[in-house]
TrEMBL record:
Cleavable signal peptide: none
Entry membrane topology: Peripheral membrane protein
GO CC, any one term: plasma membrane
Domain ABC transporter, first and last residues per copy: 4-229
GO biological process: response to antibiotic
Record carries keyword Coiled coil: no
Subcellular location: Cell membrane
UniProt cross-references to SMART domains, sorted A to Z: AAA
Protein name: ABC-2 type transport system ATP-binding protein
Protein keywords: Antibiotic resistance, ATP-binding, Cell membrane, Membrane, Nucleotide-binding, Translocase, Transport
Length: 309
């Protein structure tokens, strides 16, 4: 049985349709991503799943329970980190974690969790004095303190610097390795590509595709480009004759070949048949950005893309 089932979810705010029709399921132990630009309907979907909003249509199940009816039981088993969580200004980090731990029958060890999230030295810092990144890490701690079976994380790493973002990704992978099913809302391509086993791409309240990151990328029918240098005479005719090659250009700084299929293998095999080894070889293939662009007709902006490269 899937851990999360969403079938034909529909949600309006007055006249505005936030979620037109969204369906997907999440299996136990997966990191499942919901990827889409601002306003696509991601947060509304997870708010319905966590019982914070009541759907106008469709069927939702989390661990076999209906979030609209079984909210109290689900809160014991589902950890939720929502965007812009606020706590009382004076509440200290350590107190917040201890308080939340007291809500659960078998919580995680607060000290250990603070240590994992790099918050030990801020144990006595009041919420108001925390930086954006520290607040973000605290909200992740509060989502995980109950040792949940399912964690719902909305905009997990927004506001974190690249190092903190990578640390958080590692933490989430460790949480998944402990068997926790994770639903991750993101508009960061790098995050989706690195963490998610499968993704639903959402646009204007509808699911455009559900697949693994690699599966989504493979649906993009774009060319690959290989660039390299060689010491020797280029077997230009032999390379041009390869069925995988669609274009070849020779410049002073290197040779670029474009093509499809197993281009890399075909080129390296041809070069080695001529006793040549490619130097400084680089390959450009389609990325999740290309897949997103192909599906939605527009790219995420650089700022949204949150690249840490
Ligand atoms: N409380 C609300 N009242 C009215 N409209 C809302 C409300 N919350 C969201 N919306 C609208 O519903 C649509 C979906 O919003 P939602 O927050 O679910 O999208 P999102 O994909 O999570 O975007 P973001 O990444 O910006 O949070 C948007 O058009 C948004 O303006």
């Amino acid at each position: 049985m899937p851990v999360i089932e969403v079938a034909n979810l529909h949600k309006r705010y007055g006249e505005r349709v936030a979620v037109a029709e969204v369906s997907f399921h999440v299996e136990r132990g997966e990191i499942f991503g919901i990827l889409g630009r601002n306003g696509a309907g991601k947060t509304t979907t997870v708010e319905c799943l966590t019982g914070l909003r009541t759907p106008d249509g469709g069927r939702l199940r989390v661990l076999g329970l209906d979030p609209a009816l079984d909210g109290a039981r689900l809160r014991q088993r589902v950890g939720v980190q929502l965007q812009e969580a606020a706590l009382p200004d004076k509440l200290r980090v350590g107190e917040a974690v201890e308080l939340y731990a007291s809500f659960y029958p078998a919580p995680a060890d607060p000290a250990e969790l603070l240590d994992t999230l790099g918050l030990t030295e801020h144990r006595r810092t009041p919420f108001k004095k925390l930086s954006g990144g520290q607040k973000q890490r605290l909200s992740i701690a509060l989502a995980l303190i109950g040792n949940p079976e399912v964690a719902v994380l909305d905009e997990l790493t927004t506001g974190l610097d690249p190092q903190a973002r990578r640390d958080t990704w590692r933490l989430i992978e460790q949480v998944r390795d402990r068997g926790v099913t994770i639903l991750l809302v993101t508009h960061f391509m790098a995050e989706a590509e690195r963490l998610c086993d499968r993704l639903a791409v959402i646009e204007a309240g509808r699911v455009l595709a559900v697949d693994s990151p690699a599966g989504l990328v493979s649906t993009v029918d774009s060319e690959q480009r290989i660039t390299f240098r060689i010491n020797g005479v280029l077997p230009e005719q032999a390379l041009r004759a390869l069925p995988e090659v669609t274009a070849l250009s020779i410049r002073r700084d290197g040779i670029t070949l474009s093509g499809k299929g197993n281009l890399l293998n075909a080129v390296v095999t041809t070069l080695s048949a001529h006793q040549l080894t490619p130097l400084d070889l680089s390959i450009e293939r389609s990325t999740l950005d290309d897949a997103f662009l192909a599906l939605t007709g527009a790219a995420l902006t650089d700022e949204q893309n949150g690249s840490t490269r």
